[in-house]
Amino acid sequence: MDDVLDLDAVIVVAQSEAYNCAKLLRNNDIFCKLFPTPPSVFPGCSLALAVSSLKLQKAMQILRNEDMKVIKYSYLEGNIIESFYESSWY
């Protein structure tokens, strides 16, 4: 079973394409969630697709094959939730 706590990589895409990118990845059996982009990855207001680092390269390949514009991708120190907090409370 997939868990949000396993999402330890992000893909920053154009906001106008974020929903379609998430749908595309889910249709290809990649568990992902849309999150605000962590400030440590990309300053400013943007959305990111959070994925497991184990699936990051596959996700990137799928998005590129469909001509989706990837602005940036990054591995995180911990999971997507931890990236917003200095100390974990869960």
How would you sum up this structure, described in words?
- The protein has a single domain, classed as Alpha-Beta Plaits.
- 22% of the residues lie in helices and 22% in strands.
- The chain contains 2 helices and 4 strands.
Largest sheet properties: 4 strands, antiparallel
For the record, the CATH class is Alpha Beta
DSSP strand tally? 4
Which descriptor suits the 3D outline? globular
Give the radius of gyration.
12 Å
Total domains, how many? 1
What is the rounded distance between the termini? 19 Å
Q: Estimate the strand proportion.
A: 15-25%
Which sequence of strands runs across the widest sheet?
A: 2-3-1-4
Give the topology.
Elements: E1 9-13, H1 18-27, E2 33-36, E3 47-51, H2 56-65, E4 70-75
Antiparallel strand pairs: 1-3, 1-4, 2-3
Summary, kept brief:
The chain is of the alpha+beta class and 90 residues long.
Task: Throw out a few tags for this protein.
Alpha-Beta Plaits; 90 residues; alpha+beta; four-stranded antiparallel β-sheet; single chain
